[in-house]
Amino acid sequence: MSNIAVYPGSFDPITMGHVDIINRLAPLYSEIVILVAQSAQKQSLFSAQERKELIETCLSNLKNVRVEFFEGLTVDYMKKHNAQVIIRGLRAVVDFEYELTMAQINKKIAPEIETLLMFASPECYYISSRGVKELAINGGDLTGFVPDVVKEAITKKLRK
């Protein structure tokens, strides 16, 4: 049996919280797939391709991590690629209710797939992609919130 975990999300942009969780997961799985969501209903700062490239750059030191796009249900991707575990990060109790609901829906439609909820490290507990974008739009310093390459990409994007 393969040992594949999938970490789905918009990653718009990838934050130090995401990087922290992925770094902590990497030793536990033979392969981790970062699944970049593509949604026509969601307004993104970065295109899916830009997000993929930023994630690959930020995680280039992790040889068992790859980044893919997917549109549709995560469990459909998982079945197609023989993956067993969905990884979801938690920052606060508010996240828990949403993630519990999603985990139960996924369990109902794909009982063979498990969801692992992983808490953010204390130093990343408050970081969210939405908060990063708000901070950037209002001229705040992104140091410590996102990797340097992402900070540069956001700055360049907002200058346009």
Q: Main beta sheet: strand number and arrangement? A: 5 strands, parallel
- Euclidean distance between termini CA atoms: 48 Å
- Backbone CA Rg: 15 Å
Number of helices: 6
Low-confidence stretches: none
**Care to count the β-strands?**
5
Q: What is the 3D shape?
A: globular
Structural class: alpha/beta
Q: Major sheet: order of its strands?
A: 3-2-1-4-5
| Share of β-strand residues | 15-25%
The helix content is 40-55%
Succession of helices and strands: EHEHEHEHEHH
How would you state the average pLDDT, rounded? 93
Keywords for this entry:
6 helices, alpha/beta, 5-stranded parallel sheet
Q: Could you explain the architecture of this structure?
A:
There is one protein chain. This protein is of the alpha/beta class and 160 residues long. It contains 6 helices and 5 strands, in the order βαβαβαβαβαα. It has helices at 16-25, 48-58, 74-81, 93-109, 129-137, 148-159; strands at residues 4-9, 31-37, 65-70, 85-90, 114-119. It has a 5-stranded parallel beta sheet with strand order 3-2-1-4-5, with helices on both faces. Strand 4 (85-90), helix 4 and strand 5 form a beta-alpha-beta unit. The longest helix is centred in the middle third of the chain and has 17 residues, at 93-109. The protein is globular, with a radius of gyration of 15 Å. The model has no long low-confidence stretch (mean pLDDT 93).
